[in-house]
């Protein structure tokens, strides 16, 4: 597991703490986007474009970063 972790960190050119920060940031954004999608499903008048905007933002960030 440690070897695979080191290989992954090297492949993305990040330190452990840089990777933890980025992965946590992405995870929080994914959770917030998912929550907005669930709320939008119940009340279609709110968060009409927020979830799709969050997906686009994450896609651009991940492709730019890597």
Provide structural commentary.
The two termini are 22 Å apart. The radius of gyration is 15 Å and the shape is elongated. The chain has one domain. It has 3 helices and no strands. With 66 residues, it is mostly helical.
Considering the chains and any ligands shown, give keywords for the structure:
mainly alpha; 3 helices; elongated
Which regions contain 5 or more consecutive residues with pLDDT less than 50? none
Number of structural domains = 1
For the sheet with most strands, the description reads: none
- H/E element sequence: HHH
The total of beta strands comes to 0
Q: Which bin fits the share of residues in helices? A: over 70%
Radius of gyration, rounded?
A: 15 Å
Helix/strand/pairing category: mainly alpha
Distance, first to last CA: 22 Å
Shape: elongated
Strand content: under 5%
Mean pLDDT value: 94
Enumerate how many helices there are, as a single number: 3
Outline the secondary-structure elements:
Layout: H1 2-12, H2 16-42, H3 50-65
Helix pairs in contact: 2-3
Describe, in short, the structure shown:
The chain has 66 residues and is mainly α. 82% of the residues lie in helices and 0% in strands.
């Amino acid at each position: 597991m440690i070897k695979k972790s080191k290989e992954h960190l090297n492949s993305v050119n990040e330190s452990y703490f840089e990777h933890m920060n980025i992965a946590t940031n992405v995870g929080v954004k994914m959770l917030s986007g998912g929550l907005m999608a669930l709320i939008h499903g119940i009340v279609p008048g709110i968060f009409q474009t927020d979830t799709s905007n969050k997906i686009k933002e994450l896609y651009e960030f991940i492709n730019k970063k890597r």
